[in-house]
Amino acid sequence: MRLLIIDKTAGLPSAHERHQALACLPNLEIHVFGPSRWVENDRAVSWVDHGDERYVPHRGTVCFPGYYARHFYSGGLVRVLRNVKPEVVQLLEEPWALVSGETAFLRTFVGSFDLLFYTWENLYRPWKYPSRLSPVYARIDRWLHRISVGAICATGMAETVLRRKGYDKPTAVIPYGVSARYFQSPVIRKDPGRPFTVGYIGRMLEMKGVDILIRAMDRLPDAELTLIGSGADEGIFRSLASQCHVENRVRWISSIPEEEVVNHLVSFDLLVLPSRTMPGWSEQLGRILIEAMALGIPAFGSSSGAIPEVLGREDLLFPEDDVDALVGAIRRLREDAVWRTEIVEYGQRRARELFSWERFAANMGDFYRNLGFL
Questions:
Q1: 2-177+356-370 and 181-354: identical CATH topology
Q2: What are phi and psi for residue 222, nearest 5 degrees?
Q3: Are 277 and 308 in contact (CB under 8 A)?
Q4: Pairing status of strand 29-35 against strand 114-119
Q5: CA atoms within 13 A on the CB side of 99
Q6: Are 122 and 282 in contact (CB under 8 A)?
Q7: Which of 87, 106, 120, 126 has its CA 20 to 30 A from that of 257?
Q8: What is the rounded distance in angstroms from the CA atom of residue 206 to the CA atom of residue 276?
């Protein structure tokens, strides 16, 4: 089967691993198309060849880099469709994104192919989208529902939403994986005299619940907090740290490239993702939790969105906005060495079994076979 993957993040190192794993599937010729330049987590990323590609890379020029739903290609997409002549196109995009509509439109002119999409959407909003382009997105979404032959969902919640919208084609729940470097089990040596460190890596936005971590520090006077990321609400969080008189125990680091995440994670005693559900958004996966678990770093998360699916244990969760519950869980982690060892081993095992790129590729291969493609 000749497969073309359309992936806005194709230039990221993690995407390279994903496509390499897929290229190992038998009877599959893989071509990958994406933008020469993309913006991920406020950082510009240029697609650079790795030199060991098992797939064929194709680059295009994208409009609105960094906008997941609004981006589309001003150059390259027509060319790759004509030259590759794919039998199947796998969109690693929401069915309502502009690039999905662009691909569906070009399908009419450059040759027929079977179309699949990938969805993270875990809030049921019947044909409504958080944008002034909502009517456009709705038309594209309905169109993709009609012409696609199947869909892959990032989480069980995403599959439920898709079914509620009336999608009746084959689906599979196949979450993304994380880089192999997180499974290499580095030896983590911590200075015994260093304060207990709680860490967060992500966007500095109200919906990510960073304020909950800052308030928790007020109850944990001998702990420190490291916050890595950037976003529109960073100033609010800095003011809150000052109001809570914990600013001297909070370390701020701007957004970092994905290849530097490992080095920061291993400096944490605990990784927390305190997301809160808000109108139009709930946590869609929480990849940083998986990365921490794979490294052997304890990981806690709120009950928002897909976080319970990722963590898989009630004792690693706390209710959204519940500072008391978070503080209680942190204190237990510090005092109960047996429990800490148990959840570290559990996290590493769960990450390896459910969230490797090899597992992702194998499950995608099974889905393609079920559709009769392989």
A1: yes
A2: -105, 15
A3: no
A4: unpaired
A5: 33
A6: yes
A7: 120
A8: 8
Distance CA 204, CA 55 (A): 36
Q: Specify which residues 250 forms β-bridges with.
A: 225
Separation of alpha carbons 151 and 118, rounded Å: 6
Tokens of 74: 């001003």
Q: Is the pLDDT of residue 70 over 70?
A: yes
Residue 219 Cα distances to 209, 210, 249, 328, 354, angstroms: 17, 15, 12, 10, 35
Question: Which contacts of 354-358 are long-range, i.e. CB under 8 A and separated by 24 or more positions?
Answer: 354/175, 355/175, 355/176, 355/177, 355/178, 355/290, 355/294, 356/177, 356/178, 356/180, 356/183, 357/17, 357/18, 357/20, 357/21, 357/177, 357/178, 357/179, 357/180, 358/21, 358/177
Whether 313 has a pLDDT exceeding 90, the answer reads: yes
Q: What pLDDT was estimated at residue 150? A: 97
- Asked if residue 319 lies in contact with residue 302, where contact means CB atoms within 8 angstroms, the answer is yes
pLDDT at 75: 93
What's the pLDDT at 186? 59
The tens digit of pLDDT for each residue in 113-124 reads: 999 999 999 989
Q: What CATH topology corresponds to 181-354? A: Rossmann fold (3.40.50)
Task: Please report, for the chain, the start and end positions of each structural domain, with discontinuous segments joined by +.
Answer: 2-177+356-370, 181-354
Question: Can you name the CATH fold of 2-177+356-370?
Answer: Rossmann fold (3.40.50)
pLDDT tens per residue, range 262-293: 888 888 999 999 999 988 888 988 899 999 99
> Do 300 and 329 contact (CB within 8 A), yes or no?
yes
